[in-house]
Specification:
Immunoglobulin-like; five-stranded antiparallel sheet; four-stranded antiparallel sheet; disordered N terminus
Amino acid sequence: MVASTLATVVAVAGMTLGGAAAAHADVGDITYTDFLDGRITFTQTEDTKVQMVGQFNDGLNDPNALCLIYPGDLAPVPMNAVINPPGTAPFEHDFTGVTIKDFTGISVRVICDSELIGESDPTAPVGG
């Protein structure tokens, strides 16, 4: 009860953490989701660092659009990918202060210029 209350207080404060004490995850653990005719993969690369890599092959038609990726309830991050309609070049982003548990079972949304482009099914762990 105390841990969940503390995690709620941290979330309300706007901090991007995996809770008061990050859940255990092994380096190399992976979760992913397929959407927009592509894939986003999250990999635990250090104890409290997760790398997101992805590429989309459909749904992105404006090469000048400003696109954000919303991984679950975490803060959005810029897609930072070249848009080659109808998809993107590969992209990546490192999240710190988190574990793979923060990215497992979440939906991922892509919003470009304030328009929802796509929302994934919940991510699934590899081998789990």
